[in-house]
Amino acid sequence: MNGKTKPGPGTTERPILFNGAMVRAILEERKTVTRRPLNNQMGNGWHIADPNHPMATITSAHPKKDRFGLLIRREICADSGKVEYDVIVSPFGRPGDRLWVRESTEAFTSPCGAVTLARYSADHEPVTYGAELNGESFEAVAHWSYFREVCPSTPDWLKRAIRLALLSLQRREDLVTLLRTDVDMDTNVIRVSPGKTENYSAPVHLEIEMGPDLRAVVQECLADPIAGPTLLRYRPRARRREQIEAKISWSAITEDYLTKEFRKARDAAGAYNNIEDPLARPTVHELRALGAWLYEQQGFPLDYVQALMGHSTEEMTAYYQAGHEQKGIVYQRVKAGLAL
Q1: What does each C-alpha distance from 158 to 175, 215, 225 come to in angstroms?
Q2: 69 and 189 inside one domain
Q3: What does DSSP say about strands 189-192 and 55-57: parallel, antiparallel, or unpaired?
Q4: In sequence order, what are the beta bridge partners of 111?
Q5: Residue 221 domain-assigned?
Q6: Distance CA 69, CA 229 (A)
Q7: Same domain, 332 and 188
Q8: Top-confidence residue, 210 or 116
Q9: Which of 21, 47, 107, 247 is 20 to 30 A off residue 141, Cα-Cα?
């Protein structure tokens, strides 16, 4: 059906699943009819009530009253002349309802990183959903939907952490150690020294120029009333001394805690229930690669994304190869302009 056409009053819409080959046939107008076998085959003396009009609605006082499907009947007792009726309910609605094609999807690895995303099997287009921002409609990547439509129980600090990860492309360990003093709202930058690069011959230090979306989430983090030096903070239910002493402050979030809470929110939202093995579902580690893929989809060049991720650029390599000595910390200026 045409996704732009709204159903009329009383019309119900339901999804019907097709594999890639069937979707291509529908798009090419080679397939206009589909048949599905009944899940509940008849037995025990039941047979079609009226072969001329097999599909009907139960109208009598019946547990399935007003349900549409295959009308069947059987004699209550042999040769008694008394019959009972039932209906094998149609899982696809009734005449006048609409079915929209729910396509089969498959996993693929984004060229910008190791993240596994979903695409349609028929034409390999990424899975997207309709969204609206500031009155403008656009197509967003479906995997972003479970962050926007998170479970109501998802804590605010985790919602902010997810957005911060997608927009800044920083690693989990760097997100939880970002300090409020690393942010300069007046000059619109965040300064980050990725921990993974500390042992590099040329450690990476980033000065990230914030786009509107990143600035908004950073402002939310700064405005959080929970005290503490870190940008991301939460209020733990219990404050054990050994746990507090192991962190920079009582409100700081550890890497492991971020991972566990992300996993809980992901499963509570039901975003990946189709993947039976919980260990195969996306983790917080994949937010960085997903964010890089989103930048790629919005047309940002590869060197822009690589620089934001803290990968060495040709300019920085040439700087160190030219024999310059680093005096103090030299920040590499990068930008984070992704829009969510």
Answers
A1: 11, 17, 15
A2: no
A3: unpaired
A4: none
A5: yes
A6: 63
A7: yes
A8: 210
A9: 21
Residue 154: count other Cβ atoms within 10 Å of its Cβ. 19
Q: Is 241 helix (H, G, I), strand (E, B) or coil?
A: helix
The alpha carbon dihedral of 224, 230, 232, 238 has a sign of negative
Q: Which structure tokens are listed for 278?
A: 């919980």
Over the stretch 183-230, which tens digit does the pLDDT of each residue have? 999 999 999 988 765 655 567 788 999 999 999 999 999 999 999 999
- Tell me which residue range forms the domain holding 90: 10-35+54-102
The number of C-alpha atoms within 13 Å of 196 and in the hemisphere containing its C-beta is: 10
pTM of the model: 0.55
Asked if residue 111 belongs to a domain, the reply is no
Comparing 14-23, 115-124, 321-330, which segment has the lowest mean pLDDT? 321-330
> What would the two tokens of residue 327 be?
């005096």
Residues 25 and 164 in one domain: no
Q: Which residues contact 224 (CB under 8 A, 6 or more apart)?
A: 156, 157, 160, 233
Q: What are 93's two structure tokens? A: 């609605």
Q: How far is CA 24 from the centre of its chain?
A: 25
Residue 45 falls inside a structural domain:
no
pLDDT (mean) for 95-114: 64
Assigned domain for 125 exists: no
pLDDT at 178 over 70: yes
Number of domains, the chain? 2
At 248 the three-state DSSP class reads coil
Summarize pLDDT for 143-160 with one digit per residue, the tens.
433 344 455 678 899 989
C-alpha distance from residue 302 to each of 111, 162, 234, 321 (Å): 11, 22, 35, 23
Q: Are strands 68-75 and 83-89 parallel, antiparallel or unpaired?
A: antiparallel
Better pLDDT: 112 or 180: 180
